[in-house]
Amino acid sequence: MFGIPGVREAYQYFHDKSCKRIGPQAWLLIANISTELLIVFKFSQGEFPNPAPTEVIYFWTVFITLLVVYPIYQFYLRPKWQEVESEEKIKAQ
């Protein structure tokens, strides 16, 4: 709940052309996530001595790949292709 204002400020910075600066809550969110990652990396050495099974690695690799690729396709590539197709239809008429 405390990160929601920071996410909103970051979203506004990335999507609003008139927004010139990232807000203080977003900076606090970035600092918090960075600190937590550093703590995890520092104290997680030796936590899992056995490597993960290959099935688990394959599952997470496919899942994360789809989680990244699908929004890029759905919200960036597909609208651009539709825009090009609509321009071609207008020129053909």
Question: Mind explaining what this structure looks like?
Answer:
The chain is 76% helix and 0% strand. By secondary structure, it is mainly alpha-helical. It folds into two domains: 1-50, no CATH class; 51-93. The longest helix has 39 residues, at 54-92. It starts with a helix and ends with a helix. 4% of the residues are buried. The mean pLDDT is 90.
Brief summary of the model shown:
With 93 residues, the protein is mostly helical. It is 76% helix and 0% strand.
Blueprint of the fold:
Blueprint: H1 4-15, H2 24-43, H3 54-92
Main beta sheet: none
End-to-end CA span: 52 Å
Work out the count of structural domains. 2
Q: Helices and strands: which structural class?
A: mainly alpha
Question: Total helix count?
Answer: 3
Q: Could you list the spans in which at least 5 consecutive residues all have pLDDT below 50?
A: none
Tell me the overall shape: flat
The tally of beta strands, per DSSP, is 0
What level of helicity do the residues show? over 70%
- C-alpha Rg (nearest Å): 21 Å
Tell me what portion of residues adopts beta-strand conformation. Answer: under 5%
The succession of helices and strands, N to C, reads HHH
Mean pLDDT: 90
